[in-house]
User: Fold this.
Amino acid sequence: VPTEQGGGQVTGAAGPEVLAAEALTALRAQADPGRATVMRRYAPTAEDHLGATVPQARAEAARIARVLKSRPPEAALATAEALLALGAFDTRCTAAYLLGRRPDVVRALTPEDVERLAVGNDNWAAVDAFTAEVAGPAWRDGQVTDADVRRWASSGDVWTRRMALVATTVRNRKGASEPERTLEICERLVHDEHPLIRKALSWALRALAPTAPEAVWAFLAAHAELPRSVTREVESKLRTGRKSASRHR
Assistant:
């Protein structure tokens, strides 16, 4: 079975480790050291920041998805796992984008699979990419249950708690409003003082605002203890459709 290397060059048959190594080589070749320095401050992680951009990581995911198009879900999952094992933030995001291109893989995941794949998500950018592509769709489509997401919201790990909140934004895409599910998770984290949980709480409420404004207004009224930064952003979204008067979210 022919495969493509980064840049579209066709090579011989390749397994998950080879495809992952090709992606790492391609991302390193495109990487910007200056971006890597910025990302180390912006999204600190125990993994290596190569300095590739999101479009570059998505392009590598698309390339691998083309190679794997005729292969079974197990091959795509194994390749994502090989990307995760490389220990780079950029290949971790590529793994998430690859799984997002294979909904058949996501639909086959168990809650245990999702949680295993989430291990190593130690910064907000990795969490958000993984949740948007994998954890959120798995909850939306029933592979992950409400009880699982409630458990994530109660985790001692800040990144797992953020995953629970970000997952609500996936459920509320395309006008499919589910205020009860979103607000239950928000309720569980309303007193969380971690800055990145507060930011995710604001995001969850803002994502719900266009389709269930009355429910969001009621939630704000019931929680006067919310940080002012959260209520200001959510109220702005409700009134103007924007996170703030000066810029979009």
